[in-house]
């Protein structure tokens, strides 16, 4: 910059101009910073887990009398009998695999039906008004009340269990996908209208990409629900290949507390793994810009 004074002319770089820009190396994280971030990531769950184990031991050895300790076996007894005993662990893994297949098939069917229905509902108000009340009704029906009917109509095997999974996991996919498809900014719609975009082009390049964060939110919810549906269906139908639900029923009836708790832990682990898988898939497909806090 050239500045004009009373008797002199000076040349100074303009603040913020290219001459004032200096490349500074990116700050290198110190070991203490990395350690603090690592503790913030794993410290709270580890502390809470230790607290839960402490409460568990307290209930097993202090609250419960010895003759009633079968109601809640100590954690190390659950590990020894449920996971370190080869025969018991093999039985649990077999049941878990059976329930995993049911949950997977049910979730895939629910995803296909949910995405198709939500897309049709977003394209025509008439379809939305026609379908949405029945989707809400299906969600509101107690699944346990219709399990006997499903068994009468479709038998008590694999097909009936898959249907239970679909019923339980369908609604969140429909609601979240419909919300995402209808949440596109009106200005973007006007821009596509200005360019005479067809309905298919608008759906493919605007509404569906915009809906992906909401779609994945629904998938993560439905993934956990599909595991619950597989276990519920297996628990009540009790025929065909033995799943984790049948094992839970057997262990509860025979007061096998260690195996019962091990089966519950494995069921929870399956739900967590499926939930985390869709979170990983979301980051791979749409990146970390997705707002995980969107309403569901």
The helix/strand class is: mainly alpha
The CATH class of the largest domain? Mainly Alpha
Strand content: under 5%
Identify the CATH architecture of the largest domain.
Orthogonal Bundle
- CATH superfamily membership of the largest domain: MetI-like
Q: How does the major sheet shape up?
A: 2 strands, antiparallel
The total count of helices amounts to: 10
Average pLDDT metric = 80
Kindly identify the CATH topology of the largest domain. MetI-like fold
Count of beta strands: 2
Task: List its traits.
single chain; 296 residues; mainly alpha; MetI-like fold; 2 domains; two-stranded antiparallel sheet; 74% helix; 2% strand; globular; disordered N terminus; disordered C terminus
Structure description:
The chain contains ten helices and two strands; from the N terminus they run ββαααααααααα. The protein has 296 residues and is mainly α. The protein folds into two domains: 30-72, no CATH class; 75-286, Orthogonal Bundle (MetI-like fold), CATH 1.10.3720. Strands 1-2 form a two-stranded antiparallel ribbon. Strand 1 and strand 2 form a beta hairpin. 29% of the residues are buried. Residues 1-21 and 291-296 have low confidence and may be disordered.
What is the element layout, followed by pairings?
Elements: E1 2-4, E2 9-11, H1 31-63, H2 75-83, H3 86-123, H4 125-140, H5 143-154, H6 158-181, H7 186-194, H8 199-237, H9 244-253, H10 257-286
Antiparallel strand pairs: 1-2
Helix pairs in contact: 2-10, 3-4, 3-6, 3-8, 3-9, 3-10, 4-6, 5-6, 5-8, 6-8, 8-9, 8-10, 9-10
């Amino acid at each position: 910059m050239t500045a004009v004074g009373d008797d002199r002319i000076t040349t100074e770089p303009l603040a913020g101009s290219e001459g004032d820009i200096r490349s500074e190396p990116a700050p290198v994280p110190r070991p203490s910073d990395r350690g603090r971030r690592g503790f913030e990531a794993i410290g709270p769950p580890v502390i809470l887990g230790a607290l839960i184990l402490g409460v568990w031991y307290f209930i097993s050895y202090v609250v419960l009398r010895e003759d009633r300790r079968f109601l809640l076996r100590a954690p190390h007894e659950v590990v020894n009998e449920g996971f370190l005993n080869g025969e018991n662990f093999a039985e649990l893994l077999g049941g878990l695999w059976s329930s995993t297949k049911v949950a997977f098939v049910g979730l895939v069917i629910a995803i296909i039906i949910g995405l198709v229905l939500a897309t049709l509902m977003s394209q025509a108000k008439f379809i939305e008004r026609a379908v949405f009340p029945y989707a809400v009704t299906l969600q509101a029906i107690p699944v346990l009340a219709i399990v006997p009917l499903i068994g009468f109509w479709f038998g008590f095997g694999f097909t009936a269990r898959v249907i239970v999974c679909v019923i339980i996991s369908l609604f969140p996919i429909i609601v979240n996908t419909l919300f995402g498809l209808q949440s596109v900014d009106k200005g973007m719609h006007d821009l596509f209208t200005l360019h005479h975009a067809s309905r298919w082009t608008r759906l493919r390049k605007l509404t569906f990409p915009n809906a992906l964060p909401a779609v994945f939110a629904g998938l993560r919810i439905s993934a956990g629900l599909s595991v619950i549906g597989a276990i519920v269906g297996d628990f009540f139908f009790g025929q065909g290949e033995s799943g984790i639900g049948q094992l839970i029923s057997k262990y509860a009836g025979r007061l096998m507390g260690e195996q019962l708790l091990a089966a519950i832990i494995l069921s929870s682990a399956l739900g967590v793994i499926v939930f985390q898988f869709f979170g990983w898939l979301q980051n791979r497909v749409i990146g970390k810009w997705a707002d995980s806090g969107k309403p569901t």
